[in-house]
UniProtKB/TrEMBL annotation:
InterPro entries: AraC_XylS_family_regulators, Homeodomain-like_sf, HTH_AraC, Tscrpt_reg_HTH_AraC_N. The lineage of its organism: Bacteria, Pseudomonadati, Pseudomonadota, Gammaproteobacteria, Chromatiales. This is Helix-turn-helix domain-containing protein. Keywords: DNA-binding, Transcription, Transcription regulation. Pfam families: AraC_N (PF06719), HTH_18 (PF12833). It comes from the Bacteria. The keyword Amino-acid biosynthesis does not apply. Residues 139-236 form the HTH araC/xylS-type domain. One of its GO terms (molecular function) is sequence-specific DNA binding.
Length: 239
């Protein structure tokens, strides 16, 4: 919100605001020759409710939905490259005079809601891990991954820990999390790395400590995920 403490706004990030909330964003590097593009999408409560109910039904996650709270009225969140491409498509649609413009915008907004809700659901499940790591098989698997980020992921041991077959594990992750166990581990490693870099830790030490093969391998993954190299991220975050 406008009166909240300042935070660093980086590439591949968005603010999700509740009705009546606002943010003030400053882009000190932007200029007429080097402009910054921003997109604001206002989505009705009815649209969000409609999409979220369909998502809960399709995922069979009533147990999660009953305990899920939206939390802070201002959510500062990172989004992946697929969501970034979706936002770029929306910008293009808003700027062009396509005969099906309104329909295409509505479809893309629905997809955006799904992606944001999936992200929120994933965060909720990971938080749930810390409270009740044995709540169900999926939570047990998530807790295992989250607590062993620096180690290579052994799918056989993960299946045994969660009490699921390999095929069932991959189905659960694809349906509930939206990615494979290995992809989730990679994303969690990168988020943990970003947090430690913001806290002033050395990039090379963080890369090795979280199980990356080399600093160059880490930097490639980091740029693909965050949209900037780790050194630039460190500078922008003021570390």
């Amino acid at each position: 919100a406008a009166d909240a403490p300042g935070t660093v706004f980086l590439p591949h990030e968005s603010f999700v605001l509740a009705p009546g909330e606002a943010v003030e964003i400053d882009f000190p590097d932007a200029s007429r020759k080097n402009p910054t593009t921003c997109l604001t999408v206002e989505i009705s409560r009815e649209k969000v409710t409609q999409v979220s109910e369909r998502l809960v039904d399709s995922l069979g996650m009533t147990e999660v939905a009953e305990q899920w709270q939206f939390g802070n009225p201002v959510l500062h969140t990172h989004h992946n490259s697929e969501t970034q491409r979706l936002l770029n498509r929306l910008i293009k649609l808003f700027m062009e005079n396509h005969p099906d413009r309104d329909l295409l915008i509505d479809l893309n907004v629905s997809e955006l809601i799904v992606r944001l809700l999936r992200h929120k659901t994933r965060d909720f499940l990971l938080t749930w891990c810390s409270r009740d790591p044995e709540a169900n098989a999926l939570i047990a698997a998530l807790d295992w991954i989250n607590s062993t980020l620096s180690q290579p992921l052994d799918i056989t041991r993960l299946c045994r820990h969660a009490g699921m077959s390999r095929s069932r594990l991959y189905v659960e992750f694809k349906e509930k999390i939206g990615c494979s166990p290995v992809e989730l581990q990679q994303q969690l490693r990168l988020k943990r790395a970003a947090e430690r870099i913001r806290n002033g830790e050395a990039i090379t030490a963080v890369a090795y400590d979280l199980g990356f093969k080399s600093p160059s391998h880490f930097c490639r993954r980091f740029k693909a995920f965050f949209g900037c190299v780790a050194t630039e991220y460190k500078e922008r975050s003021g570390s």
